């Protein structure tokens, strides 16, 4: 299979967000002439508000409001001057009060995003390195991105995995002066914590390690003077740590604050920190409100407010314990996450709760993996115990109805979040009108049935699958052994609605990454050939391309059948534990299927374009040339016809072993020179099986013999003859000493067309790569996409940090 192109991340996010918006779960507008924090009005309905990040409710405190109004009346709506020149009159008072909260030097920034952009490039030197927790906030990751241009190495670890962190420290220790680990104090989606004490202990063992905490969601409701979760654990900030807090969210005003115990670093950032120098300063109203909030934080009242919130969060925890709702992280934070699994279940449940009078946030990709959609419920001092109880009862009542309506169950949700070791994730609502058979060998499928629905292209006909099974079982290396699963779903009248091929195989994870990442990964694989590899459950196999799934879209049961297929895949996933489920080779313009799979928890990724040749109406070379575009005719005459006389062309079904070994060497040469085809090298046994099969043949190009010289073999096309009359040039080998000079690749494409015409094939499946070249010889180009579902976003995000393009 060809390498999947790097997906445009923004396009994917936009599609997911658009689906959520269309389902009424995102991009809503609050209404009404006033707002009290306890209620929020949406679409004319007054709802209890369980979606705020103002956990202490200070944004509604009259003291903060009056201070903001007074500041506007005294100093205007803004103070339009860089803070590097002059700070407006209230700034110094605010800085002194925030310094008192922490007992350390601080720097106030416009917001945390701009703060990270100012601080991170200032503290990280060219000889340093960075390690990111893969769930650290987007604003931190965004601020790190430009450092790659300075050749600062950036690594990523799975969430809170200290063993991975220690390995990365060891990896970077010889080439980095300081190693910065960046994490959140409390993570904004699941409400779980960073292992603060363990990180400090690690920094003692490895003095190069410095720690950068984003604690904006831990601010105010925790810690001495409301200094946040991180400070509640540390009590004193060490010199090798930097902390970010916020003056918005729970603090009730606007802005952010950086705290450090290193005077040299503090001075460096304050004197020149990018956005600190060139961005506008906080508006007088924000500074006024922040001063009023700081006064509360510096008084005993802050502990009363913290206790009031703690009572509410404890009460919600108690309420949830009386249910079986899947709370993803149980602790004392005001952020609660109840998993729903598939996005469509989340949409359904959010809308049901709004109908009952409760607003909660929806956690969705990219903030969480797409299959880890859920309710993100936040508790504030505005919420009263009776409505907390009411929310619990409403969620508990509607949760199971949402599961039922979207054809899933609690065990499947728990499995999606890694909360169960059970193997039973069978559906509660059995799809009784359909039956599903699963076979593990093509020999258990009726040949005529398989070929009728699945055998019309590529190497997916019955004989082709028998060949692939023979070639990829019982081999020595793990990457050369596949597990095969054949699905057959029928309705009550025994009519086939869905048929498919699925394999489990070992993939290089950078199959989903751009070529720059592949080159870096292959460099790292010199020492560890299985670095960043994992098992993937995928439609089709590496050797097949095209339609790996037959789906009768005319049937009224097609969505039901597809849902059953996905559920059976999930049962396989539960048993086989792949890192990813990949559905591939779909048309990009199928919007109905696109929406269906997004709602089922799959993310769309782009693939290389598919190429087919079908125009065999010509009977001579000149007639063939007339079917091409004007530009392609010139290309043909100059680069194909112009070199044809240099070659002797032969077609063999079977060759001797020494010649087959030369074929294999040419195949390996193409693999080496084409990082876009970054699969594992196929074993020589595959080519031996081709040599023994009547369905395979070799188109061989040799340069014509010159005086006293042998004919060098410069190219070979490995071609499969499908039982339905489709010709499949599946693999290619070339000698790169000659390939460019003699246009070997283009000649092989043309000779493939000539051969397919000669044996009266109806179509050539040219595969997924080199669409530009194949278009020149008359191939039709079809845009293709895939849909993937991962356990977490770690692999995609970690590999993205290796990009240099």
TrEMBL record:
Keywords of the record: Aminotransferase, Transferase
Domain Aminotransferase class I/classII large residue range list: 48-385
InterPro entries: Acyl_CoA_acyltransferase, Aminotransferase_I/II_large, AON_synthase_class-II, PyrdxlP-dep_Trfase, PyrdxlP-dep_Trfase_major, PyrdxlP-dep_Trfase_small
Ranges that cross the membrane: none
Signal peptide region: none
GO molecular function: pyridoxal phosphate binding; transaminase activity
Record has Transferase as a keyword: yes
Domain of life: Bacteria
Protein name from the UniProt record: Bifunctional aminotransferase class I/II-fold pyridoxal phosphate-dependent enzyme/GNAT family N-acetyltransferase
Annotated organism of origin: Christiangramia oceanisediminis
């Amino acid at each position: 299979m060809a390498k999947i192109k790097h997906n445009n991340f923004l396009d994917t996010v936009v599609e997911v967000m658009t689906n959520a918006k269309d389902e009424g779960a995102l991009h809503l507008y609050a209404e009404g002439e006033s707002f009290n924090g306890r209620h929020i009005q949406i679409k004319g309905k007054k709802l209890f508000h369980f979606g705020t990040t103002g956990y202490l409710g200070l944004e509604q405190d009259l003291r903060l409001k009056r201070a903001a109004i007074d500041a506007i009346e005294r100093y205007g709506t803004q103070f339009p001057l860089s803070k590097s020149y002059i700070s407006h009159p209230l700034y110094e008072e605010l800085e002194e009060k925030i310094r008192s909260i922490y007992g350390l030097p601080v720097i106030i920034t416009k917001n945390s995003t701009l703060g990270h952009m100012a601080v991170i490039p200032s503290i990280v030197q060219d000889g340093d390195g960075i390690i990111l927790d893969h769930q650290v906030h987007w604003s931190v990751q965004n601020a790190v991105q430009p450092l790659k241009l300075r050749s600062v190495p950036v690594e990523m670890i799975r969430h809170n995995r200290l063993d991975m962190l220690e390995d990365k420290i060891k990896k970077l220790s010889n080439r980095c002066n300081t190693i910065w680990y960046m994490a959140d104090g409390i993570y904004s989606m699941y409400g779980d914590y960073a292992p603060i004490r363990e990180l400090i202990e690690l920094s003692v063992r490895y003095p190069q390690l410095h720690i950068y905490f984003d604690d904006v969601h831990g601010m105010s409701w925790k810690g001495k003077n409301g200094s946040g979760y991180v400070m509640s654990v540390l009590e004193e900030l060490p010199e090798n740590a930097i902390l970010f807090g916020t003056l918005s969210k729970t603090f009730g005003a606007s802005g952010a604050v950086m705290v450090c115990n290193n005077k040299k670093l503090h001075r460096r950032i304050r004197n020149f920190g990018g956005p600190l120098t060139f961005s506008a300063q906080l508006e007088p109203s924000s500074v006024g409100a922040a001063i009023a909030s700081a006064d509360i934080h510096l008084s005993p009242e802050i502990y009363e407010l913290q206790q009031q919130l703690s009572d509410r969060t404890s009460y919600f925890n108690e309420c949830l314990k009386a249910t079986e709702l899947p709370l993803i992280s149980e602790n004392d934070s005001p952020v609660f996450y109840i998993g729903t699994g598939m996005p469509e279940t989340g949409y359904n449940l959010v809308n049901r709760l709004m109908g009952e009078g409760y607003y909660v946030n929806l956690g969705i990709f990219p903030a969480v993996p797409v299959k880890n959609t859920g309710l993100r419920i936040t508790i504030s001092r505005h919420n009263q115990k009776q409505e907390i109880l009411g929310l619990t009862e409403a969620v508990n009542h509607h949760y199971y109805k949402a599961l039922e309506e979207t054809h899933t169950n609690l065990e499947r949700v728990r499995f999606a979040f890694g909360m169960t070791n059970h193997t039973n994730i069978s559906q509660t609502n059995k799809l009784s009108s359909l039956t599903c058979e699963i076979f593990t060998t093509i020999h258990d499928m009726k040949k005529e049935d398989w070929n009728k629905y699945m055998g019309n292209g590529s190497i997916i006909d019955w004989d082709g699958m028998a060949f692939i099974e023979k070639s990829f079982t019982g081999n020595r290396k793990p990457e050369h052994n596949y597990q095969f699963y054949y699905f057959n779903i029928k309705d009550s009248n025994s009519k086939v609605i869905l048929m498919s091929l699925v394999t489990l195989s070992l993939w290089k994870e950078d199959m989903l990454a751009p070529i720059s990442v592949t080159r870096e990964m292959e460099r790292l694989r010199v020492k560890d050939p299985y670095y960043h590899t994992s098992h993937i459950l995928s439609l089709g196999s590496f050797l097949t391309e095209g339609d790996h799934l037959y789906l009768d879209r005319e049937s009224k049961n097609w969505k039901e059948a597809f849902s059953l297929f996905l559920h059976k895949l999930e049962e396989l996933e539960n048993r086989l534990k792949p890192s990813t489920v990949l559905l591939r080779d779909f048309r990009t313009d199928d919007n109905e299927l696109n929406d269906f799979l997004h709602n089922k928890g799959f993310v769309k990724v782009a693939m290389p374009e598919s190429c087919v040749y079908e125009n065999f109406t010509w009977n001579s070379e000149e007639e063939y040339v007339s079917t091409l575009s004007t530009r392609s005719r010139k290309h043909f005459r100059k680069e194909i016809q112009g070199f044809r006389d240099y070659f002797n062309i032969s077609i063999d079904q079977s060759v001797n072993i020494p010649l087959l070994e030369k074929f294999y060497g040419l195949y390996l040469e193409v693999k080496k020179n084409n990082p876009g085809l970054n699969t594992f090298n196929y074993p020589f046994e595959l080519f031996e099986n081709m040599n023994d099969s009547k369905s395979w043949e070799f188109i061989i190009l040799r340069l014509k013999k010159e005086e006293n010289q042998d004919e060098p073999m410069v190219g070979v096309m490995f071609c499969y003859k499908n039982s339905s009359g489709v010709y499949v040039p599946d693999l290619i080998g070339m000698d790169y000493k000659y390939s460019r000079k003699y246009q070997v690749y283009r000649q092989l494409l043309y000779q493939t067309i000539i051969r397919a015409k000669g044996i009266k094939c109806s179509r050539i499946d040219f595969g997924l790569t080199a669409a530009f070249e194949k278009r020149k010889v008359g191939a039709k180009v079809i845009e293709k996409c895939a849909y993937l579902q991962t356990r977490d976003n770690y692999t995609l995000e970690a590999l993205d940090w290796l990009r240099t393009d």
